[in-house]
Amino acid sequence: MRGETVIAGVGNTRYGKHPERDKVDLIVEASRTAIADAGISKDMIDGVFVKIANAAPTVLYGQKVSEALGLQPKIGCALDQGGAANVSLLTYAALAIQAGMIDVALVCYGDTARTGSRAVYHRPRGDDALVGWYSTAAGYAMIHQAYRQRYQTPDEHFGIIAVTARAHGADNPDAHLRAPLTMEDYLAGPYVVEPLRRDDCCLVSDGGAAIILMSAKRARELANTRAVPVLGVGQAQESWEVHLRPDLLRTKAADSAEMAFRMAGIRREDISVAQLYDCFTVTVLQTIEDYGLAPRGAAGARAISEGIGIGGWLPLNTSGGLLSETGTPGLQLIIEAVRQMRGEARLQVPSARFALVSNQGGSMHTHATLILGQPE
Asked: What is the DSSP string of 120-141?
């Protein structure tokens, strides 16, 4: 599949609060922008792939979105893998294109989790709710605590993830949270679920995002010189709930990354910029290490000593990530990676050749990896 499918267009709404709008309305806005960016007519789209919204999941959602867009696609489907769903949807759309089932695919997501229902984030976790295990944050607090204890990790190693994301988000006019964060602010922040501080946790946001996929051959026929090739994809999952896992600090992200790097045919050190799923700060440290980008327990120290901003060791989440741009799950990371490969990002990494994207869902249950290259 290496390079056979391209991302031809991207689009997103502003992120934050949209109390007057529906999740499908946000998808329509983002999709209209992505279609225009790809330079195609909407009637060319014959595949619609949408992530199920966290706020008020909807039956036959792929068909509802297609209807709102005025489309009659060959394939209309919705998927949920939590935050891993968007890279997974891209993968399935690319496979359908390569199989000749469809020609042009729209992958999209919209939600109103900020102004609508947030129930998915704070629901009780089975029988363990009886002893206080409520919310997504509780599972990540267990992982965060395990990481701290095993590697004797100072709080600053988590804080550098939040501080950098907020610095990048401050320069993004579409970002939900544009306020910079100092390390002192981070360390003084209140606990949500100890040891998680407020700024260890991602945002809960309204917003929409969309991308257009097609074959590289079709992009050449359309003279789309900005189309970004998909070089590698990977997926893996952990089926056990957090407290049942034999090791909280070994995840299936490693298998997902290995699949993607093998397909792309590049080395870890070839990556120029990374958009890593930062629902919580520990997720980023864990992903860096599971992906083989730093030794176990060493990601935070390297982030501090060598930097994860523009010009640093691993330029990370350059539009703000989930900690600053938007808490919506994952598609915004793909969009920023596309802009980096085009050389069109607001905070552009000079001479960026390869972009790495991670998506993950649940409490590090599902994992999906994407590697992009420069337009031909």
From this structure: HHH-B-GGGGGGT-BHHHHHHH
